[in-house]
Design goal:
Layout lengths: L1 E7 L3 E8 L13 E8 L2 E8 L4 E7 L5 H10 L17 E6 L10 E2 L2 H9 L8 H14 L5 E5 L9 H4 L5 H5 L9 H15 L7 E7 L3 E7 L2 E5 L20 H9 L4 H10 L2 H6 L5 H9 L3 H25 L4 E5 H6 L1 H10 L9 H5 L5 E2 L8 E4 L4 H13 L1
Parallel strand pairs: 1-6, 6-8, 9-12, 12-14
Antiparallel strand pairs: 1-2, 2-3, 3-4, 4-5, 7-8, 9-10, 10-11, 13-14
């Protein structure tokens, strides 16, 4: 089965084509074709490659046209142009979508119907940077592949197993009855990494206490016990928890009411919390950890402060997850920062020695993805695992449609 995965974000569109047989390996296989579209202001950059080694990169101005036009042109490279692998779009047999927020009704991977699309739309205001992009992807796929079944895979789904004490806020209980609770996010990758860690260590997932650290532009932790999520750092929206690229994570809610009373509108506050906070807000340099580390090398005090706040909150979050697990067997670093920032891993693990964590500095400085960094004396294992959301979505899509 040829499955096209669409991972639609506010500033990028990732697409990948996989071919899965009736019984596919649990370990990821390379995509047949990958395309990525990135938007920076009015600039659009497309990067495409296929399994035959053909590559294409283009840059241009968006102008007055809609972003969907760029996505449509990107996907047309599947069957037209130097990177094409298909003779026509009808060869795509299924389409899988990453949907960030499933709300109270959508948790399991689900075939997209008008009713499911409406349910995704109903909670779009909770994850405004993401769900609208997902809906646009669903609509475009319906246009380009009108007879092809589509499946939504939800980032909130893995966290459906949170116990009540972890998911219910200490607010009026009526809020919970209205659907205001901790949903958690990045679940597709948290679930994948937990399973991958167990296979790498040759252990039984049900016997392991695992903390997965999804650290990228968005950051979250998950405590995984008996293969299920029992605690996580993101909440009702993707704003809660750790410090992120442009999101500050958890904040005293009294600050928000104070700012609103001072004349800031709700729309302005939403923009500040989603786009002007986090690493960018503290450093004034960049939301990108690579730029933060480089600025630290130039003795930029605010960049150093942003890094230290990031590590402080990360370690506090990991310790909290370990408390929920009542111990720790495995700590996993994944996603852009988790996979690529030796500085973040080193700083965090040094502060977490009390949890039995110790890493080999040589391995940490030049890690291969899907590898172990633990030092010999460590009681808890430390792994770096490549995020494989697209592969995980393709697998879920195949399960739903078989």
């Amino acid at each position: 089965m040829k499955i096209l995965v669409l991972n639609s974000g506010s500033s990028s569109q990732k697409s990948a084509l996989f071919e899965l047989g009736p019984v596919s390996s649990a370990d990821p296989v390379p995509a047949l074709w990958e395309g990525k579209l990135e938007w920076d202001g009015n600039k659009e950059t497309a990067t495409i490659k296929n399994s035959a080694g053909k590559k294409l990169r283009t840059e241009g101005e968006i102008g007055l046209r809609k972003r969907e036009t760029g996505v449509e042109k990107l996907l047309e490279n599947l069957w037209s142009g130097p990177t094409s692998l298909l003779s026509n779009p009808r060869e795509v047999q299924a389409i899988g979508h990453r949907i960030v927020h499933g709300g109270p009704t959508l948790s399991e991977p689900t075939r997209i119907t008008p009713e499911v699309r409406q349910a995704i739309s109903d909670v779009a205001s909770i994850a405004p940077l993401h769900n609208q992009a997902g809906l646009a992807g669903i609509d475009l796929a319906g246009k380009l592949f009108p007879r092809t079944p589509q499946v939504g895979v939800f980032d909130t789904g893995f966290h459906r197993t949170l116990p009540e004490e972890a998911k219910i806020y200490a607010a009026p209980y009526s809020w919970y009855e209205q659907g205001i609770r901790r949903y958690g996010f990045h679940g597709i990758n948290h679930e994948y990494c937990a399973h991958r860690a167990a296979r790498m260590l040759g252990g039984d997932l049900a016997s392991l206490k695992i903390i997965t650290c999804h650290l990228g532009n968005g950051c979250s932790l998950a405590a995984v016990k008996r293969g299920k999520s029992i605690d996580t750092t993101m909440g009702f929206t993707p704003l809660e928890g750790l410090v992120m690229g442009t999101r500050g994570g958890s904040i005293d809610p009294g600050i928000l009411t104070h700012v609103l009373r001072s004349g800031t509108s709700a729309t302005e506050l939403d923009n500040i919390l989603n786009r002007q906070s986090g690493l960018l807000g503290i450093s004034g340099v960049s939301p990108d950890m690579r730029d933060i580390v480089a600025a630290m090398g130039d003795r930029n005090a605010r960049a150093r402060l942003a890094f230290e706040i990031f590590i402080h909150r990360l370690c506090a979050g990991i310790a909290a997850m370990a408390a929920s697990l009542e111990g720790l067997d495995v700590l996993v670093f994944t996603a852009g920062i988790g996979e690529n920032s030796a500085e973040v891993r080193q700083a965090a693990c040094e502060r977490l020695r009390f949890l039995g964590i110790a890493i080999d500095e040589k391995k940490n400085s030049t890690p291969k993805l899907d590898c172990e960094l633990s030092a010999k004396e460590a009681r808890a294992r430390v792994l770096v695992i490549r995020a494989q959301e697209d592969w995980a979505i393709a697998q879920q899509c195949a399960r739903v449609l078989h």
